[in-house]
């Protein structure tokens, strides 16, 4: 299961109720901050997340409404020294701007109190843990080397407790061994194999995150059958020409992508101040019914049903 916490859901400039782009994706003890618009550190505190385990920052692209909060965040971390290591992942163009911001403005010759690493990301898997991986993919957006991110649990065979009970496998380490693919021997000498208590192989949960995007034709396959798609909806269809001019999507275009890619759930973010939330929702729902418009501090759990 993945959980996503929306810290900022406005496009370009903040509004009275929406901050600039930032989300945190959680999986077990891992925390990934995606983008860091101005005011993000306050939203982290408002959400109750805090800074613990916030060692990984994924930046979709280097436009200022997605990176300016990094300066304040680093400044706070320098004083509090709450983490030992900070990793920032993005494309080369964005990392160059981030380097200028952090080393030229915030640090100005000083050394950060934690290990600060900037990782240039190319399309493909760039982060892998025992049970999930994160893949980067290219996203078209004017004048930037934009990236989208797919969070994907590894395929697994679910443990079937009713079968374990029937075979007399006690709760505890022996069940864990079976889940990890090891055969066990019970107290009465009977041997139990993993296939005796595990179900059929099933794909893990898939969460796809796309920030600013100027087109969707090259996103269909990467979004295919995702359990959730998070994507921008900066404009409405009457301003489709303006959306194209500034390399953004309408709510209808985002919904059409969700429909074509057969995703299970669509979550819209990066909304312009010019629209009412209910109008954004209505335009998308006319195409793809299972859609939500994220608000600041909303939390969504992405899991298989």
Q: Would you kindly provide a written description of the structure presented here, covering whatever features stand out?
A:
By secondary structure, this protein is an alpha/beta fold. It has 2 domains: 2-156 and 202-302, Metallo-beta-lactamase, Chain A, CATH 3.60.15; 161-197, no CATH class. Helices cover 29% and strands 25% of the residues. The chain has 11 helices and 16 strands. The strands form 3 sheets. Strands 6-5-4-3-2-1-16 form a 7-stranded mixed sheet. The chain has a 7-stranded mixed sheet with strand order 7-8-9-12-13-14-15, covered by helices on one side. Strands 10-11 form a two-stranded antiparallel ribbon. The N and C termini lie close together (11 Å).
Describe, in short, the structure shown.
The chain has 305 residues and is of the alpha/beta class. It has helices at residues 40-47, 64-67, 69-80, 92-107, 161-167, 173-179, 194-197, 220-223, 240-245, 251-261, 277-285; strands at 2-8, 22-27, 30-34, 56-58, 85-90, 115-120, 124-128, 132-138, 147-153, 184-185, 191-192, 206-209, 228-232, 266-269, 291-293, 299-302. A 7-stranded mixed β-sheet has the order 6-5-4-3-2-1-16.
Defining traits:
305 residues, alpha/beta, Metallo-beta-lactamase, Chain A, seven-stranded mixed sheet, 29% helix, globular
């Amino acid at each position: 299961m993945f959980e996503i916490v929306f810290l900022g859901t406005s496009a370009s400039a903040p509004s009275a109720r929406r901050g600039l782009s930032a989300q945190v994706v959680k999986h077990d003890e891992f925390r990934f901050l995606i983008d860091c618009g101005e005011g993000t550190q306050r939203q982290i505190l408002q959400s109750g997340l805090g800074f613990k385990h916030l060692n990984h920052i994924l930046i979709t692209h280097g436009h200022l409404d997605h990176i300016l909060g990094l300066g304040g965040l680093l400044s706070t971390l320098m004083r509090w020294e709450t983490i030992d290591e900070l990793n920032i992942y993005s494309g080369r163009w964005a990392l160059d701007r981030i380097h200028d911001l952090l080393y030229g403005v915030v640090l100005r010759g000083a050394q950060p109190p934690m290990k600060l690493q900037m990782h240039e990301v190319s399309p493909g898997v760039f982060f892998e843990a025992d049970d999930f991986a994160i893949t980067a993919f290219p996203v078209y957006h004017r004048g930037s080397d934009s990236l989208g991110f797919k969070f994907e649990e590894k395929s697994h065979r679910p443990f079937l407790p009713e079968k374990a009970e029937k075979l007399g496998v006690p709760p505890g380490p022996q069940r864990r061994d079976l889940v990890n693919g090891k055969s066990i021997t019970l107290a009465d000498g009977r041997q139990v194999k993993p296939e005796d208590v595990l179900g059929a192989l099933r794909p893990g949960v898939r969460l796809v995150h796309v920030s600013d995007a100027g087109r969707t034709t090259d996103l269909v396959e990467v979004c295919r059958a995702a359990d959730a798609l998070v994507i921008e909806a900066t404009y409405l269809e009457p301003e489709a020409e303006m959306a194209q001019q500034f390399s953004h999507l309408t709510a209808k275009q985002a919904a059409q992508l969700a429909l074509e890619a057969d995703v299970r759930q669509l979550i819209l973010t990066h909304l312009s101040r010019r629209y009412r939330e209910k109008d954004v929702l209505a335009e998308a729902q006319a195409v793809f019914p299972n859609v939500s418009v994220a608000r600041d501090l909303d939390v969504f759990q992405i899991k298989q049903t």
